[in-house]
Amino acid sequence: MSAPLYRLRGVEAAYNGAVVLSVPELDVARGGILGLAGHNGSGKSTLLGLLGFLLAPRAGELVFDGQRVDAAALRVGHLLRRRAVLLGQDTCLLKRSVAANVAYGLRLRGQDAPEPLLAQALALVGLDFAAFGQRPWRELSGGEARRVALAARLVLRPEALLLDEPTAGLDRASTAHVKAAALAARRDQGTTLVIASHDVDWLKSCADAVLLLEDGRITGAL
Amino acid sequence: MDYFADGFTRAVALLLALDPETFSAVWTTASVTALALAASLILGLPLGFALGHFRFPGRRGARLFVDWMLSLPTVVIGLIVYALLTARGPLGQWGLLFSVPGMALGLTLLGLPIIIAMTATAVESTDTRLTRAVLSLGADRWQLLAATLLEARFAMALAAATAFGRIVSEVGIAMMVGGNIKWQTRTITTAIALETGKGEFATGIALGIVLMIVALVVNLLVGLLRGRANGSPGVRQGGRSASGAAGRGGRP
User: Fold this and answer.
1) How confident is the model at residue B243 (pLDDT cuts 50, 70, 90)?
2) Are the beta carbons of A54 and B252 separated by less than 8 Å?
3) Phi/psi of residue B17, each to 5°?
4) Does the distance separating the beta carbons of A55 and B236 come in below 8 Å?
5) A151 close to A183: Cβ distance less than 8 angstroms
6) Which residues in chain B have Cβ-Cβ distances shorter than 8 Å to A104?
7) Which residues pair with A68 in a beta bridge?
8) Which end of chain A is more exposed for a tag (fewer CB within 10 A), N or C?
9) By the CB < 8 Å criterion, does B49 face chain A?
10) A160 in helix, strand or coil?
11) Residue B127 pLDDT level (bands cut at 50, 70, 90)
């Protein structure tokens, strides 16, 4: 059995001095799917922020792929964030075309963004490059914007893809595309998925494990 | 009413005839506005970015100062600049009083706070919406700065257009620092004030027409830029809608 991609021991996260998340022990298996369920404010997004290296743990040990994530590692946190990519709860696109948005992460890494690669990423979320590639950000619906944001992460082929309420507020068609694309990333690229969602049925159907969070603590599994 | 109509007819004739005195005021206005706007942008954009992006001791005080400068009456700015540039003032040896560069200096003090305040606000709002998303895609610190500037481009252009509109239509500073010298420092606004006082209604109207056309163009530009700058994303706002940079400002 391979070592877990993430290993958390006694990890705490705090805002303004108040501890909002406490994780005594958690391993996230490489190539697996971990579901996070819980009501609003239960700590799901905070946990994803830690796993996405957008937040520094206040205490405890966070290990990613065998590397301890301490203050020194977070000083060059972009190197970690290029391996574990978070899709936040609210859609966030740059004020550019769809193609430029999908290419942005590749450009950050100094990589080429050939059109076929961008088209492939958009196809994963059910968007046609010919129809959407040059469309500006302001001409997208909420569902289309969310799918473009997901494509911008899938094209990076990250080791871990962290999805925070990826289907919240989407219609049935967009929801289906987002779910299928996320699962395809795991199936085709071996991407580790951590998904926070209120859609418990979906989590149960696809995840290897679903953890329930309440008031900043993991209180059980579903 | 005939008086007004006659003035308007003569004004159009002056413009069509490319009346030298009228166009001297237009040229002076264009020169002084270009100088003042360039200086305001060169100084104001980096200062506004720093004020909006960085957290440093005294930031709130600096923001308060800029906001205070926004509300300073133009005659007070004119008075201060006059005092600086007059022969006995600290900058008196430069001979800038009653000159186009001197007027530009005064008008820069008018435009600078606008550029700083609007840029800072644009960067602040862009930061909170954008930072998480750009970082999560793997941006380092410099790439984040570049993305923030690029995303705020419409708002910064809006700041420039707003400052331009304020500078080009200003009269108090131009009158006090420029002295309203014919062929030299007489701008559209100071000429209107003078010609109207002399009863030369037509010249005043002619210059007023030019100023109103400029104002119309600036307002059209501001409207366009405001739409672009406010093209906030994330949340669908009915039908086809804005989907620009958005995200969560607060805790995740």
Assistant:
1) very low
2) yes
3) -85, 0
4) no
5) no
6) 137
7) A63
8) N
9) no
10) strand
11) low
Task: Name which CATH class applies to A6-221.
Answer: alpha beta
Contact B29, B168 (CB under 8 A): yes
Residue A15 vs residues A18, A204, B128, B160, B206: alpha-carbon distances, Å? 5, 31, 16, 38, 62
Question: Chain B residue closest to A148 (CA)?
Answer: B243
pLDDT digits (tens, 9 = 90+) for B136-167: 999 998 898 889 888 888 888 889 989 999 99
**Angle at A51 (CA atoms; ends A42, B55), nearest 5 degrees:** 85
Determine phi and psi for A38, rounding to 5 degrees. Answer: 150, 160
Q: Would you state the structure tokens that stand for residue B199, as one six-digit string? A: 């009863």
Partner residue opposite B138 with nearest CB, options A15, A95, A108: A108
A95 closest CB neighbour out of B134, B231, B251: B231
The structure tokens listed for B110 are 């008018």
Residue B220 reports pLDDT greater than 60: yes
List the end-to-end C-alpha distance of chain A, in Å, as a whole number: 24
% of residues, chain B, pLDDT over 90: 44
Q: Could you tell me which of B172, B155, B152, B175 has the C-alpha nearest to residue B163? A: B155
C-alpha to C-alpha distance for B145 and B131, rounded to whole angstroms: 9
ipTM for the complex? 0.92
How is chain B split into domains, by residue range? 2-229
B4 pLDDT higher than 80 = no
Q: What CATH class is the domain B2-229?
A: mainly alpha
Here the tokens at position B235 are: 């949340």
| B129 compared with A21, residue with greater pLDDT | A21
Q: Identify whether the C-beta of residue A217 lies closer than 8 Å to the C-beta of residue A10.
A: no
State both tokens at A153. Answer: 């992460």
Residues contacting residue A33 through CB under 8 Å, at least 6 positions apart: A183, A186, A192, A193, A194, A195, A206, A207, A208
